[in-house]
Amino acid sequence: MSILRxxxxxxxxxxxxxxxxxxxxxRYLETKIxxxxxxxxxIPELLHKALGIRNEDATVIQNAGAVVSHPSxxxxxxxxxxxxxxxxxxxxxxxxxxxxxxxxxxxxDSESVxxxxxxxxxMQTLTDAGIDLDGWLTGFSSIEESIANSVSMIRSHPLFPxxxxxxxxxxxxxxxxxxxxxEGKHIQPKEGVSVLLNVEAAPLDATMDRGxx
Length: 213
What we know:
It contains eight helices and six strands. By secondary structure, the chain is α/β, with parallel strands linked by helices. It has a six-stranded mixed beta sheet.
């Protein structure tokens, strides 16, 4: 059952009491950083407290697992727009331990995927269109490796400014502790699109050991 009516009723009271006033800012407020993080509902508020930042300090982008999976997808587009329009100087890719996308494979959970379609022919249509549904919906086995890969994809984009730093971190949802996976630094100008990520990264084995503490 939809809760739309309940939401609209609350919204009318919200507007009447002018409760939006504390959230007013200039239309295009310049932010210090861009954060790509997971869509887990706990994470945004936790991040602001754990990082010691205000809402206006960061542009927060969320998706499943804080994953950048395509160089021309909407996530990279949003990051680039935040840098160009909002003058962000750093990008933080922050995943979290105990992420629901970890070790998820659509092939192992086919029923939950198939419930959104009426029959197998629809699945075949996706396959015929060249869409690898299992690969598209599959998660990752290591949050640290996933974060490092996303950082690499962001940094190697041909339109990404060399002056903007890109960092990769993992937050512990129970304690709020941050572990650094990749610490970005300024790089030399790119040559075409073949530039490799130039970062100082914490050893993944050491980071994984800390994550298991």
